[in-house]
Amino acid sequence: MVDERAKGGVGAAIPHDSGHLHVSGEAIYIDDIAEARGTLYAAIGMSERAHARLKSVDLTKVRAAPGVVAVITAKDIPGKNDYGPVIADDPIFATALVQYHGQSLFAVAARTMEQARRAARLAVIEYEDLKPNLTAEAALRDQSFVLPTERLVRGNPRAAIASAPHRLSGKIRIGGQDQFYLEGM
After folding, report:
1. Is the pTM value of this prediction over 0.70?
2. Alpha-carbon torsion 181, 183, 184, 185, what sign?
3. CA–CA separation, 24 and 15 (whole Å)
4. Contact call for residues 68 and 59 (beta carbons, < 8 A)
5. Is residue 43 assigned to a domain?
């Protein structure tokens, strides 16, 4: 059975399930929900460099900061330090190599959000900056890829293209994208 909303195809206006709540101001977001007594707050310690090796990460002052209950690093994660859903390409916390500005290095839990944020800023981190490749052409020239090439294939694409009644050829560039979800409940 085909959903009635999908019949319009590409470019058809399909209303979002919770769109009416978002535009009317009635959507409930995470910050609208009352917190349980004893709730801890987390802040992430993030890289201040875009492309670097981590030479040292000293969290002594973070752990000693007022209100801090726990500090979590990659060493504290049971199992794999990665949350990539298909390809293991997304470390939860950087360990040796920082791949982008703002990459997560550690998390700190504290009794208030302000305490967590202040504590996270106390980390003493030493970096070794690496030469960046700033264009796709430079990365290709230097064979410098963020991760090894992965190919996801379903069926026989060459045969499907060869038997297609119409074919296009050319080049296309698409910037990286992350989905952004509104949190309505």
Report:
1. no
2. positive
3. 14
4. no
5. yes
